[in-house]
Amino acid sequence: MQYLFVGIAGILGASLRYLIGIYFNHWWLYDFPLATFLTNMAGSFILGWITTFVPRLKFLHPYMITAIGTGLIGSFTTFSTFSVETVQLVMNAKWAIAIGYVLLSLWGGLLFSWCGFNLGTSKNEVISK
């Protein structure tokens, strides 16, 4: 049953990422892959938060927590698209954008994960009671 929940959540996460890509690619006219970058930053933050906060919600079944983290956020974020976009930038001799993209993605992802993790571990009186 857990596989089914993860699969359904994965469909939702991938679909959401696709919609965000369509939206941003419609109006973003620059070489920097903004849609993937923002999706990965949001996913890093949300996964950091989910990892620390959501397990404290006793009303959520562990299968649902796995479905949200692995299925929804795992399919929402995308390392493979990040990699392909970086290679495309390099092959088009857009070195500065490629290097900036890699550095911003690495450090931004770590920062957003850390922020989500800290938010999730902070004391919340609603949950503590």
TrEMBL record:
The keyword Transmembrane helix applies. GO terms for cellular component: plasma membrane. It catalyses: fluoride(in) = fluoride(out). Na(+) binds at G74, T77. It is a multi-pass membrane protein. It is found in: Cell membrane. InterPro entries: FluC. It holds the Pfam family CRCB. The keyword Metal-binding applies. Keywords: Cell membrane, Ion channel, Ion transport, Membrane, Metal-binding, Sodium, Transmembrane, Transmembrane helix, Transport. The chain crosses the membrane at residues 27-50, 62-83, 95-119. Belongs to the fluoride channel Fluc/FEX (TC 1.A.43) family. NCBIfam families: crcB. Fluoride-specific ion channel. Important for reducing fluoride concentration in the cell, thus reducing its toxicity. This is Fluoride-specific ion channel FluC. The lineage of its organism: Bacteria, Bacillati, Bacillota, Bacilli, Bacillales. The gene is fluC.
